[in-house]
Amino acid sequence: MEIKKILLSLLAVSASIAQAHKGHGMVSSHWHATDVMGYVLLALLVGAYLWLQRK
């Protein structure tokens, strides 16, 4: 249960620190390497959570 709270907190904080400028975002003209790395980190966290929850 504790890991769920930690992951939820990390997800909420990551959305609140996002900063945008013209041409930034998933539907616009370009992505930054940090955008991609954020999704890689999210996938790793979800994978770790699922791995730890297996019986």
Low-confidence stretches: none
Q: What is the tally of helical segments?
A: 2
Task: Give me the count of strands.
Answer: 0
Work out the helicity level.
55-70%
CA distance, first residue to last residue = 15 Å
* Mean residue pLDDT: 75
Strand percentage: under 5%
Structural class: mainly alpha
Order of helices and strands: HH
**Gyration radius, rounded:** 14 Å
Q: Which characteristics define this entry?
A:
elongated
Report on this structure.
With 55 residues, this protein is mostly helical. Helices cover 65% and strands 0% of the residues. The protein has 2 helices and no strands. The chain has helices spanning 2-16, 33-53. The mean pLDDT is 75.
Lay out the secondary structure:
Elements: H1 2-16, H2 33-53
Helix pairs in contact: 1-2
Give me a quick take on this structure.
By secondary structure, this protein is mainly α. It contains 2 helices and no strands. It is elongated and about 40 Å long.
